[in-house]
Amino acid sequence: MFCRLFLLGVVGVGSLAAYNYWSDHGLPLRSSAAVALEETATRQAARVAHRATAEATDAASKLGVRMSDSALTAKIKSKMALDDGVEARAIDVDTSGSVVTLTGVVASASERDRAVGLARETGGVTRVVDKLRIKKKAVD
Description:
Layout: H1 2-24, H2 32-82, E1 91-96, E2 99-106, H3 109-120, E3 127-134
Parallel strand pairs: 2-3
Antiparallel strand pairs: 1-2
């Protein structure tokens, strides 16, 4: 057992001495093929990292647009819910970018005008598409 440990120690010290000698005297520790392979791998890793960063940035911007669409929709629905002249539950609000589409059935032209006005005056809205229909009154 002692002989094995002694032999292992001698081999380890010898390897360390050889490494130090080679590195101090400028002898190449790696072949040129190994260096070229490492450089190629580094360039490929950089390309993969760049592509992943670009895809992550694209996904984040799409997520931001979706979140801002939802926030804009929520603002408009809140305004309608707080307004006495609009029955907010009967109006659907769809937001795509800064364009808002209103659909549903309203009781009167004034309710339609008020709903469209509330949407238009909301910050971030550039255009309102009015697809609201006025409920026909029943004839007795």
